[in-house]
Amino acid sequence: MQLRQMRHFLAALDTGSMTQAARDQNVTQPTLSRSIRMLELTLKVDLLERSHGGVMPTRYGEAFAEHARSIIAGTRQAQDDVSAMRAGRLGHVRLGLGESALLAPVARSIGRLSLLREDLRVSLDYDVQDSQLAKLRRGELDAIIDLGRPDLDVDDLRYKAVAKLAMVVMVRPEHPYARKGKVSLQELACMPWAILDQPGADNYYRQMLGGEEVFRNIRLRCVAPTMLRMIALESDMLIMMTRINDQKAADDVLVELETDIPPVTTDLCLITRRRSYMTGALRFSLEEITRGLAQ
């Protein structure tokens, strides 16, 4: 089994076309087809279903693709790390950011990290957590900064809590509640809400605001935190945002309300793979991010 064969297989899988895959890999179509067939003979299964319309993965192909992507990403990272060591550089670290990591203290810590060493390159990727975890498992990311999720299978992942996050209610300065003082749960339940559409959100708001009647005031669900914040800036809708405990929510425009909502906290975590080699670049980066969030 060769890396070249895996690259050829993934190119055909991603494009759905042997012809286009051959162009992308800069080989002839017969060469690419022969390479993939040799891989199938090695594995003793068909990885692709071939037709006049193109190619589709078999169930074996779908399963093998995840492993192939992980192997290729790991090989690429190994080459980068060895090249960096040979040149006396720290290297490259790839960090994934989840929705709950879009906080000023996290940005400050990563910005500070990027300025500490000229020989360190940092790449940031933003996506929902399930997609980020898949990239981490495939070796396309070195670590993720996001919430700890007890509902996920974490046997192969390491979660290190680096900060406590609190959920707070935010409104624009012109909102009727912005200068009201403490706002009761009953008053919150009577106002229109825009919420982040994610697993468990409905149950969370039902428990927080007390009952089914609140759902008539959840007017908008949104998967993008940045758009949610913009909606709050342009309308009299309430939103919830996360902040690092013991710090005011870092927002130059929105106002944090004082409410009767019982404190809700969760852990912001650094997520890494348990059984992967931790490079010097990654170890240095995680230590500096942890130090920055503790300040």
Output the keywords.
295 residues, alpha/beta, Arc Repressor Mutant, subunit A, D-Maltodextrin-Binding Protein, domain 2, 3 domains, seven-stranded mixed β-sheet, two-stranded antiparallel sheet, 10 helices, 43% helix, 23% strand, globular
Name the helicity range. 40-55%
- What is the oligomeric state here? single chain
Number of strands: 11
Give the CATH level 1 class of the largest domain.
Answer: Alpha Beta
Secondary-structure blueprint of this entry?
Blueprint: H1 3-15, H2 18-25, H3 29-43, E1 48-51, E2 54-57, H4 59-86, E3 91-97, H5 104-116, E4 120-126, H6 129-138, E5 143-147, E6 157-171, H7 185-189, E7 193-196, H8 201-209, E8 218-222, H9 225-234, E9 239-244, E10 255-256, E11 265-273, H10 280-294
Parallel strand pairs: 3-4, 3-5, 7-8
Antiparallel strand pairs: 1-2, 5-11, 6-9, 6-10, 6-11
Could you explain the architecture of this structure?
With 295 residues, this protein is an alpha/beta fold. The chain has three domains: 3-68, Arc Repressor Mutant, subunit A, CATH 1.10.10.10; 90-163 and 268-294, D-Maltodextrin-Binding Protein, domain 2 (3-Layer(aba) Sandwich), CATH 3.40.190.10; 165-265, 3-Layer(aba) Sandwich (D-Maltodextrin-Binding Protein, domain 2), CATH 3.40.190. 43% of the residues lie in helices and 23% in strands. The protein contains ten helices and eleven strands. It has helices at residues 3-15, 18-25, 29-43, 59-86, 104-116, 129-138, 185-189, 201-209, 225-234, 280-294, and strands at 48-51, 54-57, 91-97, 120-126, 143-147, 157-171, 193-196, 218-222, 239-244, 255-256, 265-273. The strands form three sheets. Strands 3, 4, 5, 6, 9, 10 and 11 form a seven-stranded mixed beta sheet that branches. The chain has a two-stranded antiparallel sheet with strand order 1-2. A two-stranded parallel sheet has the order 7-8. Strand 7 (193-196), helix 8 and strand 8 form a beta-alpha-beta unit. Helix 1 (3-15) packs across helix 2. The radius of gyration is 24 Å and the shape is globular. The mean pLDDT is 85.
